[in-house]
Amino acid sequence: MSKISDVKAIQVFDSRGFPTISCKITLENQISAFAMVPSGASTGSKEALELRDNNLMYHGKGVFKAISNINNKLASLIIGKDPNNQDEIDKILIDFDGTDDKSSMGANAILAISLASSHVAAKSKDLNLYEHFSEIYSDITGENVNSSLPMPMFNILNGGEHADNNIDIQEFMIVPNGANDFSEIMQWSSEIYHNLKHIIRSKNYSTAVGDEGGFAPNLQSNEEALELIIESIQKSNLIPGGDVNIALDCAASEFFDGSNYFFRGENKKYSSSELVNYFENLITKYPIISIEDAMDENDFDGWKLITEKLGNRCQLVGDDLFVTNEKIFLDGVSKNIANSILIKFNQVGTITETIKTIFSARKNNYKTIISHRSGETEDTTISDLAVGLGVAQIKTGAPCRSDRIAKYNRLLWIENEGTNILLNE
After folding, report:
1. Which of 157, 344, 149 is nearest to 249 (CA)?
2. Which residues contact 16 (CB under 8 A, 6 or more apart)?
3. Is residue 369 within 8 Å of 341, Cβ to Cβ?
4. Which 3 state secondary structure label does DSSP give 271?
5. Whole-angstrom Cα distance, residue 214 to residue 394?
6. Which end of the chain is more exposed for a tag (fewer CB within 10 A), N or C?
């Protein structure tokens, strides 16, 4: 394969209007490709470090330091390398940084190169990106994987850090797992989403949207949000709990004070055990099949309790808990907490580490969900990653806003053009 001849990074902007990095890699044969890095708002404390300038420009959110690290330090390390050797490139970047959290060069700088390398390698081989990811997975893990289309979780009602409203639970998602194919998934989700808008408007609530495209009204309680979603599913002539289920992302670390969980919107306080009982009541009353970050990332007793009590009834997803880090994840496995892991490649910083974490989760019978971040771009890498690695689920926001829709549209094209790529069961 033609070797890398040039690496160039510039500052671009994410869906919240904050700076992020775009990196372009060019090969000796003049084939080039670029990728863009996402950014999160609700972040785990153990995530790899997103390097920001922290000066007066862009409210401190500039990424010129990270870009300088790419253009003036990291680029020379991989020029002359084969982009198809993803693990070699990622190891060079990790070793040069030399820190556990990539704080020297910045995880955003390292990820930008890692992503761009995968894009240009796929392009040079005239492969779809998801096909290339399947090959990388096999190279890194020694095992083959069947490509498949993931089941989306559509975040149609936003709260927490993703919206300026009084809802404490961060994401209320629909999971149309009764649909027959991805096209029908998109039809159902679009119809439910627009019916929800009409219902919210009929109650004289705001139909403004949050960071991920879900509506963000002020409501009386978290349960009112669930009731609105149930009504919107029924108005779409679909069956709650049959055609369409519900998933939650609580982002509990955002309302944990070190001792108790405080729902400010409802002025209610819960101990860990009381919060577990609260969730037990919710999944009994509503068709909730998945709860993400139900407890604080350091509340291991709470995680153990909810796993023991609800783990056989509900998917319990660790996001802030595991931050896509294989070592942290395996520590959680040893504690018997959660039964699923959210995968966000900017939490760990490279494609190689992301793949290793997914492989480790599979070996330990944990479900995996590929996820976007609240600060997104038009980059659709996660769609190809989910398909190429055969990951069963994907989170990438509401069926609204181009930064979210781009990922769904990419999956529609993969369904349309892919040979024997079916919905993951």
Report:
1. 157
2. 39, 41, 211, 374, 375
3. yes
4. coil
5. 16
6. C
Rounded distance between C-alpha atoms, residue 78 and residue 60, angstroms: 29
State the catalytic residue, choosing from 344, 356, 395, 407.
Answer: 344
In contact, 215 and 196? CB cutoff 8 Å: yes
As a whole number of angstroms, the distance between CA 6 and CA 146 comes to: 33
pTM: 0.96
Instruction: Quote the Cα angle for 378-380-383, to 5°.
Output: 150
Question: Does an H or E element contain 161, and which?
Answer: none
pLDDT over 90 (residue 43): no
Q: How far apart are CA 238 and CA 244, in angstroms?
A: 7
Q: Which are the contacts of 40, defined by CB distance < 8 A and separation ≥ 6? A: 47, 344, 346, 347, 373, 374, 375
Q: CB within 8 A of 19, min separation 6: which ones? A: 11, 12, 13, 58, 61, 62, 63
Choose, from 47, 212, 353, 415, the residue flagged as catalytic. 212
Using CA atoms, how far residue 214 sits from 40, 157, 194, in Å, is: 16, 4, 11
Is residue 212 annotated as a catalytic residue, yes or no?
yes
Give CA–CA dist 128/320, Å, rounded: 31
344: annotated active-site residue: yes
- The pLDDT assigned to 198 comes to 98
How does pLDDT run across 348-401, given as a tens digit for each residue?
999 999 999 999 999 999 999 999 999 999 999 999 999 999 999 999 999 999
Entry field: residues in the chain = 425
As assigned by CATH, the class of the 4-126 domain is: alpha beta
Structural Rg of the chain based on CA atoms: 21
CA distances from 34 to 25, 109, 116, 149, 378 (A): 6, 13, 5, 24, 12
Does residue 176 contact residue 189 with C-beta atoms inside 8 Å? Answer: yes
* CATH class of this structure's domain 151-417: alpha beta
pLDDT digit string, tens, across residues 155-164: 999 987 656 6
* Residue 83 pLDDT exceeds 90: yes
Interval 246-264 mean pLDDT: 94
Distance CA 235, CA 276 (A): 31
So where are the chain's domains? 4-126, 151-417
The Cα–Cα gap between 153 and 277 comes to 24
42, pLDDT greater than 80: no
